[in-house]
Structure to design on (204 residues):
């Protein structure tokens, strides 16, 4: 009731200029609560194409659900076989990638000092880190830690390179052993995380 009264008073005082702002707030809230879906992936791709044409200025802001939708439904082959149900989170500039991993698809995992040898056939693994520039075509994720609810103790940092290698990390000259490299989309010059959003910056 208080919100309605406030809106009515603001509409009376400032007229039509106020209500588009209310609509903008509602649209932003709806986007924030969206879940990954094929429909969201299609909408994000449409926004991205318009962004590349310069309709959104030099930056495009994407939510975690936006990115997860693209990875799940619009980028076939981006995930190796044996990795499914990816979830993306952004918070305070930190990236967290979580997915279901079929252990038998990655034979290197059970050899990690016996720690992963007793896991079930499929486990949830989370990789947490921060984005950093790598080269003109790629961005890197510097991994701070690898976690799984099936492992009761934190994995030592020294195991991170072994786990990333077992999960299919591609070696590239100059890429740290505890980092992953991802290609930047065509037309994008850089990317970074600001609070809970991924910010894409147009090339040039």
């Amino acid at each position: 009731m208080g919100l309605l009264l406030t809106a009515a008073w603001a509409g009376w005082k400032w007229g039509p200029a106020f209500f588009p702002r209310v609509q903008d707030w509602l649209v932003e809230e709806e986007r924030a609560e969206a879940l990954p879906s094929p429909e969201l992936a299609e909408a994000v791709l449409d926004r991205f194409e318009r962004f590349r044409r310069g309709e959104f200025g030099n930056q495009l802001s994407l939510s975690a659900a936006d990115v997860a939708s693209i990875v799940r439904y619009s980028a076939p082959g981006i995930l190796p076989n044996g990795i499914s149900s990816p979830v993306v989170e952004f918070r305070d500039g930190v990236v967290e990638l979580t997915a279901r991993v079929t252990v038998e698809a990655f034979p290197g995992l059970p050899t990690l000092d016996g720690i992963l040898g007793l896991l079930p056939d499929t486990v949830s693994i989370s990789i947490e880190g921060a984005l950093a520039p790598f080269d003109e075509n790629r961005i890197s994720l510097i991994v701070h830690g690898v976690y799984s609810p099936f492992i009761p103790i934190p994995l030592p940092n020294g195991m991170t390179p072994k786990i990333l290698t077992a999960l299919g990390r591609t070696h590239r000259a100059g890429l740290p052993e505890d980092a992953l490299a991802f290609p930047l989309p065509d037309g994008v010059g850089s990317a970074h995380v600001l609070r809970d959003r991924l910010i894409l910056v147009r090339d040039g």
